[in-house]
Design a protein that fits this description.
single chain, about 210 residues, alpha+beta, Jelly Rolls, eleven-stranded antiparallel sheet, 5 helices
């Protein structure tokens, strides 16, 4: 997983528009899955070893947050932005259903987290956009090659990251987790081809990149 600099003013403006709309809405109901695990334990090395020993294939067993893909479809006040994030924005980035799809829209409360997991039940290249006001949070992962635990701190406003969530074949999995000390939004896309992912990343990083509108 690596950071992507958001230099394209068109993409930055689009993301800022999402943040403005999301923060104007009433926070969604929070799901605290496995209340025995708090945010510090959920992102700890101790918990990672425990989950690996227990066996795990995909989605997190412990979270504190709201999976908005499950709520937006049937909630009128969220439906407009759901459609914009899930359908309009990926097309503007250059994606269609053959290339990838919106895989995550997630809200973290101020003590929110997603515990260690792999996403190996939904493998692919990820493009992950995350917003928080002051950047008081992080994304953490276990490097597939070195085994080292690495932490990518958030920063104020939007951050973008990209990487590959493997399918478990030949050990190609990406253990990862996230934590925040303030409200935080995440929007992610699962992209099938590395070439398409890199094309979009270049657009995001290019300060004189094409308009996506």
């Amino acid at each position: 997983m690596r950071n992507v600099d958001i230099n394209n003013p068109h993409i930055q403006a689009r993301l800022d528009g999402f943040a403005e709309k999301l923060n104007a809405l009433k926070p969604p109901p929070i799901d605290h899955r496995d209340t025995s695990i708090d945010k510090h334990m959920g992102v700890s090395t101790e918990y990672l070893h425990r989950i690996m020993e227990e066996g795990h294939r995909g989605s997190p067993k412990s979270i504190k947050g709201a999976d908005l893909l499950r709520q937006w479809r049937d909630t009128p006040e969220w439906r407009e932005i759901f459609e914009d994030v899930s359908f309009n924005f990926p097309r503007e980035l250059g994606l269609d259903w053959n290339d990838g799809m919106n895989a995550l829209c997630f809200f973290y409360p101020e003590d929110g987290f997603v515990g260690w997991h792999t996403n190996e039940d939904a493998p692919g290249h990820t493009l992950l956009f995350t917003w928080s006001e002051t950047g008081d949070g992080f994304y953490r992962f276990k490097d597939k090659d070195s085994g080292e635990i690495k932490t990518l701190p958030d920063k104020p406003g939007w951050v973008c990251r990209t990487g590959y969530y493997g399918d478990g074949v030949f050990g190609r999995i990406q253990w990862h987790c996230a934590l925040t000390n303030e409200p935080r939004w995440s929007i992610a896309f699962c992209i099938r081809r590395a070439e398409m992912t890199e094309m979009i990343v270049k657009d995001i990083e290019c300060s004189d990149g094409r308009s996506i509108i």
